Amino acid sequence: MTPEPGRSEEQERARKAQNARAKSEAAAGKAQVAEAKRLHALQKQRSIEDRLRRAELIHDEMQRLEYFDSADAFAPYLGVETPEGSYIVDTSDPSISRRLFAERTYAANQIPIVKDILGRLGRPVPEGCAIVDIGANIGTVAIGGIVAYGFRRAIAAEVHPPNRRLLEMNIILNGLEENVQVLGGLSDVDGLGRSSGRPGASGSTAVVLGGADQKVREIRLSRLDSLIDRGEVSIEDVGLVWMDVQGHEPLVLEGARQLIAHRAPMVVEFSPDHLRETPDGLARMQALVREGFSGLVDLRAGAGKNPDVRPTAEIDSIARDLGDRFTNLLLIPK
Questions:
Q1: pTM of the shown model
Q2: What value does the mean pLDDT of the chain take?
Q3: Do residues 83 and 104 touch, judged by C-beta distance below 8 A?
Q4: Which of 53-67, 73-87, 270-284 is predicted least confidently?
């Protein structure tokens, strides 16, 4: 081909290359616009699908709540299948059983969040280790930890006899008789104590030290340290501790010094109001946290990309900020 007048062959080749690049860039620009439109449409579709799924979930939960609330007139128990195990629940219980039946999870769904935080802090929970669940109720953390979240065995302590019966039934239902060790009430003493709770509310049971006006029942208590010393409990493979005992946490920890020394991370309910029902309970809990742990994460804030690990000295300010509310604290061992 003869170059245009006034242009050399080299200039003509450069012009054609420039035109080709321009066409290529224009085509790429169109492709980017088309891809952006496609991604926007896909994101919009996913958003619609997410909203529909949430609506279906809410509708399902409302239906399950209605069913649960009417079941008490016909049957004392119901069964519920969840991704974290199968459970028998008490139809007279308006708290944990009701939520578990409606939402098909209770407490155990926090385990992967905690494991993720610990992993990002360089303190991963070993696969196949044991979880200690103190205040196990009907077993959602102990059983769910094994069924869904990588634990090999569990030690489950529950002080309230009706809860403990359901706990034992749920262990059998999930075929975990060889994997879960059931204990009674834990405290800072070995001997008899008392427990109280609102009738029908399985999550409100607590060990009490006094109060003549409370409905109480006599129970047997043990120091976890005593059980370890007698060879009845082994904590060698414990990788995580979960505790919710309605304000009795400092007494359990004072009777479980070997568990603290084992340096497993702990998730504990922290309720200043409940702790104040135990003599010097809040001060004792704060002292135990400062003494035995290097930091804490307030799980109210969620995991986030960078967990907010706070000095244990800040437990005092957390207590003030909570007022009459409560939170779960992840305690990082020294």
A1: 0.79
A2: 87
A3: yes
A4: 53-67
